[in-house]
Design brief:
By secondary structure, the chain is α/β, with parallel strands linked by helices. It has a single domain, classed as Rossmann fold (3-Layer(aba) Sandwich). It has 12 helices and 8 strands. Strand 5, helix 5 and strand 6 form a beta-alpha-beta unit.
């Protein structure tokens, strides 16, 4: 009896192990647009190496000062994805996490860092060529936290024909008043690289407005915005809550369907780890047929 129990326990452990996804960290792709190598991490479904299937892809973007391993080391993306996929709450998917430095996922005003161009023109094609993806809009989504939430909205709103769903978490959205009143040192360090070093109202350049989420929504055609399904989540104690609430109001005014969540929490990994399962379910529902 004891030996049978041990065999059954071993079989259960082997099954659980076999259902673990495959995590590959800090791979590199050479970018001619950026003139450098870009690192990225990938989560592959547990059956990737034993099947011929093609999978939907979620691009998961990191926050300010993090990199391609932020979501793997602090966000525990592999553990959370394993649990959510194995339970059937989300379908198997590939999750790709690129390093964007402090680019805010846009092309810089001086033209020296064209990160948006790299992502659209080089990175997505690189992933589709190198992995067994389903390389169409219906099976591609984007999500991210903080600066990565901003990047999520940049990609989805400026390129709605490429993504079926977008899920920004604690998105780096600032109201006009907040942008103007930011201390000069903060502006220089955080927003100087993509937007240039300006003070006060001089910060509201044409380049900024072309990449400022609230301005994008105000000026966008509502039918274009409706091409993407949105899931927006921000903690009630987050310093970015005002910008996220303004985004919510603008989308209501535009008549753009979206899910908006305000939960108890602040700007930290505890909040984003609890948000990730819902993100996977949301984008997973968009992938299902």
């Amino acid at each position: 009896m004891r030996s049978i129990f041990i065999i059954l326990l071993s079989a259960a452990a082997l099954t659980a192990f076999s259902q673990q996804g495959i995590l590959k960290e800090s791979l590199t792709v050479k970018s001619s647009i950026l003139g450098t190598n870009v690192e990225y991490s990938v989560y592959l479904p547990s059956d990737y190496n034993v099947s011929n299937r093609h999978y939907p892809v979620l691009y998961l973007l990191h926050g300010y000062t993090d990199d391609e391993i932020g979501w793997t080391q602090f966000g525990e993306v592999d553990r959370i994805a394993d649990r959510t996929i194995n339970s059937g709450e989300a379908p198997p998917m590939i999750i790709v996490m690129p390093d964007a430095g402090v680019s805010w996922y846009i092309n810089s005003a001086d033209g020296k860092v064209r990160w948006e161009d790299f992502f659209i023109q080089e990175f997505i094609p690189h992933i589709d060529a190198g992995l067994r993806t389903r390389p169409t809009k219906e099976f591609r989504a984007v999500a991210g936290l903080s600066m990565g939430g901003h990047g999520t909205l940049i990609m989805a709103m400026k390129h709605p024909d490429l993504f079926t769903a977008a899920a920004p978490l604690s998105a780096g959205i600032f109201t006009e008043k907040e942008l103007i009143s930011l201390p000069d040192d903060t502006w220089k360090n955080v927003f100087g690289p993509p937007y240039g070093e300006h003070t006060g109202e001089a910060r509201l350049t044409d380049h900024l407005r072309q990449n400022w989420i609230l301005s994008i929504v105000e000026n966008a055609n509502a039918d274009e915005l409706k091409k993407v399904k949105y899931y927006i989540d921000c903690g009630d104690g987050d310093f970015l809550i005002k910008g996220n609430m303004e985004l919510h109001a603008l989308l209501i005014d535009k008549g753009v369907p979206h899910e908006f969540r305000v939960r108890d929490g602040i700007h930290n990994w505890d909040y984003w780890r609890t948000a990730l399962p819902e993100v996977l379910k949301f984008v997973g529902d968009s992938f299902r047929r």
